[in-house]
Amino acid sequence: MSSELTELYQQVILDHNRRPRNRGRLPTANRVAHGDNPTCGDQCHVYLRLDGDRIAEISFDGSGCAISQASASLMTTQLKGKTAAEAQELYRQFHEIVTTGKEPEEISDLAAFAGVHAFPARIKCATLGWHAALNALKGEPAPATTETHSD
Ligand code: ZN
Questions:
Q1: Residue 30 located in a structural domain
Q2: How far is the CA of 93 from the centre of ligand 1 (A)?
Q3: 24 CA distance to ligand 1 middle (Å)
Q4: DSSP state of 40
Q5: In this structure, is residue 26 part of a structural domain?
Q6: Which of 45, 46, 95, 131 has the fewest CB atoms within 10 Å, counting from its CB?
Q7: How many domains is the chain built from?
Q8: What range defines the domain where residue 87 resides?
Q9: pLDDT tens by residue, 119-133
Q10: Of 111, 131, 140, 132, nearest to 10 (Cα)?
């Protein structure tokens, strides 16, 4: 990878840390899931509104290391508007990137996390938000009105 690309990808992570996208609870969510990465202390709630099979809206809220929060922010931008099957495929690509460091053929913001593969303990940080989103997709519909924010 060229140093310009490395720089670009570092900027992607920094930018998502400084200005997280889709952060905060989503009042219209009909699916919610919580992810927890105790080895690093990362927490991530994912809220999404499924419209049929499509993710109409998605947001996250959480706390933890820069990698976990930037990855969750990026995840929301990647999954919005996607079907459950498309979300699974994006996660498969992202997981391959963070575990092997292999760059995708096309320039993608997902590749910003390729460097994570050199730090195996950080892979759980990078995938936390994605796991929560996929669990939310698989879970039972949860009426937003009865969802309580216990932590
Ligand atoms: Zn972490």
A1: yes
A2: 20
A3: 19
A4: T
A5: yes
A6: 95
A7: 1
A8: 3-140
A9: 898 999 999 999 999
A10: 111
Q: Write down the pTM of the prediction.
A: 0.88
Task: Find the 37 Cα to ligand 1 centroid distance in Å.
Answer: 7
Q: 66 CA distance to ligand 1 centroid (A)?
A: 7
Give residue 70 CA to ligand 1 midpoint distance, Å.
Answer: 10
Residue 148 lies in a domain: no
126: domain CATH number is 3.90.1010.10
Give the Å distance between the CA of 44 and the centre of ligand 1. 11
What pLDDT, in 10s, does the model give residues 30-76? 999 999 999 999 999 999 999 999 999 999 999 999 999 999 999 99
The residue whose two tokens read 């079907």 is 83
Residue 146 lies in a domain: no
Name the phi and psi angles at 104, rounded to 5: -70, 160
Q: Compute the distance from residue 52 Cα to the ligand 1 centre, in Å.
A: 33
Residue 81's region, left for phi above 0, alpha for psi from -120 to 50, else beta, is: left
Kindly report the backbone phi and psi dihedral angles of residue 45, in degrees, each rounded to the nearest multiple of 5, phi listed first.
Answer: -100, 135
